[in-house]
Amino acid sequence: MKPRTKRAVAIVGGLAALGVAAALVLNAFQSNLVFFFTPTQVAKNEVPKDRTFRMGGLVEPGSLVRQKDALTVNFKITDGAQSIPVVYTGILPDLFKEGKGVVAQGKVHGDGIFKASEVLAKHDENYMPPEAAEALKQAGHPMAKENFAGQGQSGAKPR
Amino acid sequence: MYWSSWDAFWAMGGHAFFVWMSFGALFLALAVELVLLRVRRIRALGDIEEERELEAEN
Amino acid sequence: MNWFYFSSPSTFYGLAGRLAPWFFALAAVTAVWGLYLGLLVAPTDAQQGEVYRVIFIHVPTAWMSMFLYFVMACYCGLTLVFNTRLSAMMARAIAPTGALFTAVALWTGSFWGKPTWGTYWVWDARLTSELVLLFLYFGFIALSNAFEDPRRGDRAAALLAIIGVVNLPIIYFSVQWWNTLHQGSSVSFKGTSMHVTMLTGMLVMSFSAWFYAAGAALVRVRSIILERERRAQWVRELKEG
């Protein structure tokens, strides 16, 4: 390449990279900073109307029901204060479990049921072997924060 | 040693694809970078040699 | 001791050449030790099973992607304030390795996210800001090569790098400031939520990544010095050609 072409390519490349970075930042600030809403926000109608949004929380223990077709599931997403019923048809991620974190994308329909088109599992930041997890459970701490050196947040709970 | 056999190790509990795609990509990337570093050095030294020869001719 | 002794490219060229092999050797030793701990010794994870082992390369590369950017920006600050040649060359030498670690962090995160979260990619604050970091590295590299006069490229790219530092706290605190799919930090200034062997393996791998990055940057800066000082007397007098 001639030096001049090389320079032009470099300038265009640099501007393109900056443009993409700026676009990503702006896009994030516009809509995606709120990656998900909590069931309380959904119950209070503080969510976007007429478009899909994400709802995050814990899968309420005891709420999971699998339909006969084996692909459709009903469960509730809770944040402790409110819980919203969800229906979803499709493959669930491996880490999807009752009592664990979940983020579902979809829309609330007239009957108050959140119809999800995508379900993602949200796991926490605790890493330990099964024996240690079992010991914590036995001691009455379901992965309780107090057992660790004081990490500020629980990953499973929506903040 | 955590694993009971090498087969179990390579299988990674059924997640072999994801684990080895990750580790493989890292090592491939490092190998490519090391080659590029070598190429760049050889080129830089070659340019200096050229410069010297030009000088010697003049 | 003269603090500016090694700030001259000609003396630093020799120093870098002597240091680089040691860094690579340390990187290799710590990598073997870290991989041994992470892949062979560490127990499985109660939540995720074996796939969590991606953490032993994901977290070190992600940390290093941010740390290298910070170091690069510091050199850029020196470039703008003192107009030193070597600092600009060091920044240029760090950028490609920083970009590589950023790309690997994104890649490994993606292959970890699929089996655990259920998706390769989401536009949450953590993933998006790390992607922005990759484009900042690309922008830095492109801008530094965009000028006929390399010194102008140095200064333009330095300015970009320094502005881009804003992104570092955004990446780090994104999981606390906003709702994200990405979990919080397992290791913070306050402590850790990891089993001890897992933690040790991850820290050893992080040292390995640091040693490697230092070695790669030093080798690269030697080539940059040769390219930029091609016409200098000391380069002409180099023995090995």
Can you describe this structure?
- The complex is a heterotrimer of chains A (159), B (58) and C (241).
- Chain A is of the alpha+beta class and 159 residues long.
- Chain A folds into 2 domains: 1-32; 36-138, OB fold (Dihydrolipoamide Acetyltransferase, E2P), CATH 2.40.50.140.
- Chain A has 3 helices and 6 strands; from the N terminus they run ααββββββα.
- Chain A has a 5-stranded mixed barrel.
- Chain B has 58 residues and is mostly helical.
- Chain B has helices at 6-11, 16-57.
- Chain C has one domain.
- The chains are: A alpha+beta (159), B mainly alpha (58), C mainly alpha (241).
- Chain B binds chain C through residues 1-3, 9, 12-15, 18-19, 21-23, 25-26, 29-30, 33-34, 37, 40-41, 43-45, 47-49, 51-52, 55, and chain C through 39-44, 49-51, 53-54, 57-58, 61, 96-97, 100, 103-104, 107-108, 111-112, 114-115, 212, 216, 219-220, 222-223, 226-227, 230-231, 235-236, 238, 240-241.
How is the secondary structure organized here?
The complex is a heterotrimer of chains A (159), B (58) and C (241).
Chain A: H1 3-32, H2 39-43, E1 53-59, E2 65-66, E3 72-78, E4 83-89, E5 101-108, E6 114-122, H3 130-138
Parallel strand pairs in A: 4-6
Antiparallel strand pairs in A: 1-3, 1-5, 2-3, 3-4, 5-6
Chain B: H1 6-11, H2 16-57
Chain C: H1 9-41, H2 55-82, H3 85-116, H4 125-144, H5 150-164, H6 167-177, E1 187-188, E2 191-192, H7 196-228, H8 233-236
Antiparallel strand pairs in C: 1-2
Helix pairs in contact in C: 1-7, 2-3, 2-5, 2-7, 3-4, 3-5, 3-7, 4-5, 4-6
Brief write-up:
The complex is a heterotrimer of chains A (159), B (58) and C (241). Chain A contains 3 helices and 6 strands, in the order ααββββββα.
Distance N to C terminus of chain A: 53 Å
Please state the CA-atom Rg of chain A, rounded to the nearest Å. Answer: 21 Å
Question: Poorly predicted ranges of chain A (pLDDT <50, ≥5 residues)?
Answer: 143-159
> How are helices and strands ordered from N to C of chain A?
HHEEEEEEH
Number of strands of chain C: 2
In the predicted model, the low-confidence regions of chain C spanning at least 5 consecutive residues are none
Number of helices of chain A: 3
CATH class call of the largest domain in chain A: Mainly Beta
Give a short account of the largest sheet of chain C. Answer: 2 strands, antiparallel
* CATH level 4 superfamily of the largest domain in chain A: Nucleic acid-binding proteins
Strand order of the largest sheet of chain C: 1-2
Mean pLDDT of chain A: 78
The most extensive interface, with participating residues per chain, is: A-C, 56 and 51 residues
Estimate the global geometry of chain A from the Cα principal axes: extended
- Treating each run of at least 4 consecutive H or I residues as one helix, how many helices of chain C? 8
Rg result of chain C? 20 Å
